[in-house]
């Protein structure tokens, strides 16, 4: 078994606490489900938001998921790069997995589909 990274990203329409938590939960659930990951398989989750999101910590959505109480989760802000995708939440999930690197399903939702069209299957 190896530690693998699963990437994901999504966007919100506006910086609203409820929306931030809802889209984060949906993204993280799909990332785990698409890769057959259980909470016990997760080493850690790092979430970042663009600097225009400040209404809620996306980590709150992850910690509130059934069975995810002990998963280490941390939030940060993304670099503020001109032309970057606004209102974006990114996730890097480190997991113990037997899936080969090229078999990992990275999940991009909403406007974040533009970030990595090469990873969409």
TrEMBL record:
Pfam hit, one: CM_1
E.C. number: 5.4.99.5
InterPro entries: Chorismate_mutase_AroH, RutC-like_sf
Database matches in PROSITE patterns: CHORISMATE_MUT_1
SUPFAM superfamilies found in the cross-reference section: YjgF-like
Superkingdom, taxonomy of origin: Bacteria
Catalytic activity: chorismate = prephenate
One GO MF term: chorismate mutase activity
Keywords assigned: Amino-acid biosynthesis, Aromatic amino acid biosynthesis, Isomerase
Keyword Transmembrane helix attached: no
UniProt cross-references to PANTHER family, sorted A to Z: CHORISMATE MUTASE, CHORISMATE MUTASE AROH
Protein name per its UniProtKB record: chorismate mutase
Source organism per UniProt: Sporosarcina saromensis
